[in-house]
Amino acid sequence: MKREKTRIGYAIQLSQYIKGFRLYLLGAILCNMAFKVLPLLMGLVTSYLVSSVLLGETSHVVSLLITAGVLVILTSVFSYLDVQVSHDMAYRILTQLRDKCYDKLDVLAPAVTAGQRSGDMISIILGDVETLEWFYAHTIGQLVVAFVVPAAALVFMGIISWYLPITIIPFIVLLVLVPRRSANEANAQGTAVKTTTGILNSIIIDGVQGIKDIISFRWQQEYFKRFFSANNEYSDASIAYAKRRGNESRGISLIMESAALVVDVVTILLVAAGKISVLWLMPIFILSSAIFSPIQDALAMSTNYGLIFGAAKRVIDLFEMEPMVKDAGKEFFRVNDEVEITFDNVKFTYPEISGNQDNSPVLKGLSFSFHTGETVAFVGASGSGKTTAARLLQRFWDVNDGAISINGKDIRELSLDSLRNTITVVPQDVYLFNITVKENLRLAKLSATEEEIQNAASEACADDFIRKLPYGFDTPIGERGLRLSGGEKQRLSIAQAFLKNSPVLVLDEASANLDAENERLINQAVSRLKKGRATLVIAHRISTIRSVDRIVVLKDGKALAEGTYGDLAENCPDFRRLIGDEYGGKSNEE
After folding, report:
1. Which of 101, 213, 295, 362 would you call most buried, defined as having the most Cβ atoms within 10 angstroms of its Cβ?
2. Torsion over CA: 153, 157, 162, 163 (sign)
């Protein structure tokens, strides 16, 4: 069982991400310390000045006035530097943390992230990382200052009279114990707030992205039930956190005000007894109040420690996730013009995401191969392993047993970059980004020239509709390509495949569920795209199945039969059943 970290444990782990900012952090602490010390000195000098004037001791008035003026200027300078340096450092660190978060997602996806809510991931990368600004910009420096400044003030007061620090120290101990007493509760509440925030974000994103389907299926009432439930959980968590924080703040204020009163009384008694010069009466009043200022700032931030370390827990948990697929390739694999892909007795079971998941094997010994210039189609009932096999070829997961190889080399021995450069996938559900047509196409090849982009669009039968767009290739296409039809998005995906120009092609029936004209154009483009490549098609339509060189029939996670359409239609009853029942052909089963 994984042991839960303490606040100190999270603080130490968070400090690992400021390795390049150590001097910056030191500068921020010194600026914050100067910003806290200068007003305290200002109070001492001015109060001593007033006391001197009132008591008729004016010999040092001019020097005290000059000193006060210098302190005013320095206070203004360090007030600016305190904010500027600490926040500049903090936001640079947050930028680095967000980069690390996305780098980690890149390593984990899609195997580990498949069971995660996208809204929760967004909440971690944006909200939780942003919360850590409190830690980097305020907490570290304030904790140092909250120790150094009061300690120095206590020493100074002890020189005047040892009764003063003895009076103050018990109150300081009480102040430290207030947040300490509720630390575990604060951590749990902070984690609850951050967790419920992630769930609520996920539901909101689902509602925004799926608004058309929600309206179409009249699902508003059910969606709002889910939304209100998540919103109430978030509200309850936030209220519980705020109540505890309010109680802590009241306790801290009560102790500080009591301390100031007690110290003032003790000081008056000491002056009355002649143990302290009356000149120091007002300075000690000022100092006894100011000594708590840095402690108050640190304790005020301590009421947010639950949120800070709740956010830290989620960020660090993300960083500590282990990828299911590790990039152990030590060479950048380069394929020749001719490639052969082989599945050798491949067995695979999806990792369990929840206790309720059916964790039965998907592939139970799949063996087949295909090579350059050949188009092979997967045919099988839903759940037979067609899509899983294509994902394993890309190493979204690793096989449990057996091997997948390219030209005899196990793909687990290849670098992930080289493997994924070798394979291009044209999915059925195309994802396009909210950028221009040109920028979406250039994702496949960042160095693509204007001519290469236009040629790829032409090969994909996409140039005609692109030129009709308001700004042609420079037209933004909306989130997920919402401004385009399904056929237009498919043709852009095929254009990306032409630009990437990989020797291995995986097609998830690009022309399925389209009108006749789009199907004709896409089939033309696909025919050109397949030339000179090793192509694997996840087939759904009878026309596609008839057109391929070879068919692999999948059943129960294995290759039941292989052959041409004619051979299988004649000799494989399961294939006849599939094309009869699922693909619109006439069943020949006897």
Report:
1. 295
2. negative
Asked if 386 and 378 count as a contact pair (C-beta separation under 8 A), the reply is: yes
CA–CA distance, 223 with 77 (Å, rounded to integer):
54
Structure pTM? 0.70
The kind and range of the H/E element at 264 are helix 220-272
On whether the CB atoms of residues 504 and 338 are closer than 8 A, the answer is no
Contacts of residue 418, Cβ cutoff 8 Å, sequence gap at least 6: 329, 331, 332, 333, 334
CA dist 43 → 40, 135, 264, 286, 471 (Å): 5, 29, 16, 6, 66
pLDDT digits (tens, 9 = 90+) for 215-249: 766 777 888 888 888 899 989 988 988 888 888 88
What is the per-residue pLDDT across 415-426, written as a single tens digit (0 to 9) for each? 888 888 899 999
Q: Which residue has the tokens 């109150």?
A: 171
Q: At residue 191, what is the residue type?
A: T
Distance of CA 123 to the CA centre of its chain: 7
Question: What pLDDT score was predicted for residue 586?
Answer: 45
Average predicted confidence (pLDDT) for the chain: 83
Q: Of 232, 233, 226, 230, which Cα lies nearest the Cα of 200?
A: 230
Pick from 106-110, 273-277, 534-538: least confident: 106-110
Spatial separation of the C-alpha atoms in residues 181 and 302, rounded to whole Å:
12
Which residues, 6+ apart, have CB-to-CB distance to 287 below 8 Å? Answer: 40, 43, 44, 153, 156, 157
Q: Edge-to-edge strands of the sheet including 534-538?
A: 423-426, 504-507, 534-538, 375-380, 550-555, 558-563
pLDDT tens sequence across 545-563: 888 999 999 998 899 999 9
Tell how far CA 63 is from the center of its chain: 57
Are the CB atoms for 547 and 527 separated by under 8 Å? no
Paired tokens of 58: 């004016």
Check residues 328 and 64 and name the one with the higher pLDDT: 64
Edge-to-edge strand list for the sheet holding 409-410: 363-371, 340-348, 401-406, 409-410
